[in-house]
Specification:
This protein is of the alpha+beta class. It is about 35% helix and about 35% strand.
Length: about 120
C-alpha cells in the first residue's frame, strides 16, 4: 500500500509560492504557462508551459536549499509524471508541439530558482 505524506499549512503555502516563482521564471523566458497543478487520472503535473514548438512538463521541488531539491525526484515520481504527461497529451493534444521536454525546477527557501532542463527522458 502506498502512503502519501501530507504537508502542513506552512508547507502547502511554501509549495504554492514555489510554483508561482517557477511560473514567473518561465514566463520571463518567453514561455506561456498553460496549466498549474493540472490533475489527470495518472497524477498531478505542477506546471505545463509552451514556447514555440516546445512544450515543457515541469515538476517543482522546494527545499531548504535548491541543491537539495535537485535530488528529490525519485524514480517512482518520474514514472508517475510520465504517466500523467501521457494522460494530458490525450486530454489536451493541442498543447503539444513538435518537442516535449521534462524539466525539474527547484526553489530554495531563500527564493533561488533553478531549472534543470531535460531532467529526464521517457525510456524507449
Amino acid at each position: 500500500m502506498e502512503t502519501t505524506r501530507r504537508r502542513g499549512a506552512g508547507g502547502e503555502r511554501y509549495g504554492r509560492a514555489a510554483e508561482e516563482r517557477c511560473a514567473a521564471a518561465l514566463a520571463a523566458e518567453g514561455f506561456t504557462v498553460l496549466a498549474r497543478r493540472r490533475r489527470t487520472a495518472a497524477g498531478e503535473i505542477d506546471l505545463v508551459a509552451r514556447r514555440g514548438p516546445l512544450t515543457v512538463i515541469v515538476e517543482v521541488k522546494g527545499r531548504a536549499r535548491a541543491a537539495e531539491a535537485a535530488f528529490a525526484l525519485s524514480p517512482r515520481q518520474r514514472g508517475r509524471l510520465l504517466a500523467a504527461a501521457e494522460a494530458l497529451m490525450a486530454e489536451e493534444p493541442t498543447w503539444f508541439g513538435e518537442e516535449i521536454r521534462f524539466d525539474l525546477m527547484v526553489v530554495g527557501r531563500d527564493g533561488t530558482v533553478r531549472r534543470i532542463a531535460d531532467a529526464f527522458r521517457a525510456e524507449t
